[in-house]
Amino acid sequence: MTFRKKLLLIFFATGLIQSALQAQTLSANKGHSHNDYHQNIPFLQAYFAGMGSIEADVFLLNGKLYVAHEKKEIAPDRTLNNMYLKPLATFFAQHGNRPYADTAQKLQLVIDVKEDHEHVIPALIKELAPYQRVFNNPVNKWAVKVVLSGDMPAPAQFKDYPSYIYFDGRPNIPYTNEELKHVAMISDDLGNYTKWNGKGTPTPPDSAKLSGLINAAHAMHKPFRFWATQDSPNTWIQLEKLGADWINTDHPQQLQDFLSNRSKLEYINPTPYPVYQPTYKTDGTDKKVKNVILLIGDGMGLAQIQAGLTANHGKLNIYQCSNIGFSQTRAANSDNTDSAAGATAMACGEKTNNRYIGKDASGKSITNLPDILAQYGIKSGIISSGDITDATPAAYYAHVLDREQSTNIAADLLTSHVDVLIGSNQKSFLNNPDQSLMSKLSAKQYHLSTSLANMQTTGNGKQLVLLQDADTRPIKDGRGDMLKQALVQTIHLLSQNEKGFFIMTEGAQIDYGGHANNLPYVVTELHDFDKTVAESLKFADEDGETLVIITADHETGGLSLLDASTSNGMVLGSFSTNDHTSINVPVFAYGPHAQEFKGTYQNTELYHKILNLLSK
């Protein structure tokens, strides 16, 4: 039996291997820039990526150490001194005898001796002599650690070298306590223990072997590194879960981006909220539709919904709907729509150009759904958890050629038949270039409130609720359940209308989180939106004549999900863009005629389907 097999048996027997190991969270400073000299800009690329370990292979030629993987690669200017020692010493001096300005960051220089360590190590000691303050300072905890790998002396000889020379250990070598003092870390080839290629997860037996190796190193108070690992986020995640201390990479900047942005890419929700259990009594029936509640999660694609589902431990109110379709979101002038063209398609039934609101592709004004429904005596409410003059809500009452024309959008409320308008951006109304706008709106029977508490929920008057911007701050910053309460109050008011109502409720800031590439922002906004969905489903069950539709204007961020734990409410993602994508978005429906929203269709069909049902 080999020593390695004996060692693994010991791991199992002593209980060092655990089937589920609590993952540590690594920083970019735990990156190991493997074969760093092959980078386009050796040393500097890894250094400015904050790598804590940088590796250079060396050969000895004519008394000098050259950096190369093979002898044929040796070039006159590619010496260890020029490429690594001099620039490192310069940064060390600039940062007050530290490798990095950030005192939390340390650095080790791993020198892989390709051959002839008997002569290479003395030559290395000679080249390090001018830089003793950088590498050999026992009182400076930030001194750069020199670690030798590759062709190394026998462990019994470690003590024969200066104390600032450390060695890269191996898991199959039984070091003495004295020898361990000279070992900086334990490393090995991943392929010696598993056929796992970095995709998915290792098998449970392989995970046990790998974590056992790492735990054994930790028992000796040494960090662990696998080399010959695939360079991908999934590999980095799995190595982190196994407990690896160093992440081997040939792409230091990509690793740095991934680890440094971790707080914006990972969300953990330890306590899930309960979801509503619908009765399904009228779901999918042919009963008359009197009311429609359209909920638009701005920027909400399937990945955003899945992230929300995972973070809520596998449950969402949205997924209580059994009738599901897909909306194709392209604009008239681009397959990637923005909210203006996307919302106009749903509000007016025609494709238009990006940035156009309530206008067709030729620039002609087209009728919004609330104005048409008013002809049937149906009242409308428009609600947003953001700026009420922003593109999505504006498409239901305004007509402008550029979504940035906020004051023009506000003024268009005068010609609209919207009965309730709730959202922020007071200044576009109260400080409008038309200084008489508010008096004109009052003459149109709009009652102005600046809080939901002051909103009137009885009587025949129209409601304009202009919230302070702070009232629509992100959920993560303390907004509260403004969106849900606004919908509940609007339902209470408009359900008094015998002819029925149409309410569009926008979860605006799912989109904001996508643009910011911030997953916690996305998920907390989606959860707020989902809790608002619950109120819609409840009312639909109580009323029996209400159809609930849940969809999005587009997907934002090109979100992909890299890791997840439904049991822990953890999700880790990555974004491919800070803009919109052309991915189809889902349509969920609940209530009478919900089955008519199955299938795949253009987003304009939402307008026609809603109008057809409410005009019967």
UniProtKB/TrEMBL annotation:
Binds 2 Zn(2+) ions. Binds 1 Mg(2+) ion. InterPro entries: AIM6_PI-PLC-like_dom (IPR039559), Alkaline_phosphatase (IPR001952), Alkaline_phosphatase_core_sf (IPR017850), PLC-like_Pdiesterase_TIM-brl (IPR017946). GO terms for biological process: lipid metabolic process. The keyword Glycoprotein does not apply. Zn(2+) binds at D298, T392, D511, H515, D553, H554. Pfam families: Alk_phosphatase (PF00245). The active site is at S339. Its cofactor is Zn(2+); Mg(2+). Keywords: Magnesium, Metal-binding, Phosphoprotein, Signal, Zinc. CDD domains: ALP (cd16012), PI-PLCc_GDPD_SF_unchar3 (cd08577). The keyword Zinc applies. Residues 1-23 form the signal peptide. One of its GO terms (molecular function) is alkaline phosphatase activity. Mg(2+) binds at D298, D390, E506. Belongs to the alkaline phosphatase family. PANTHER family: ALKALINE PHOSPHATASE (PTHR11596). This is Alkaline phosphatase. It comes from Mucilaginibacter agri.
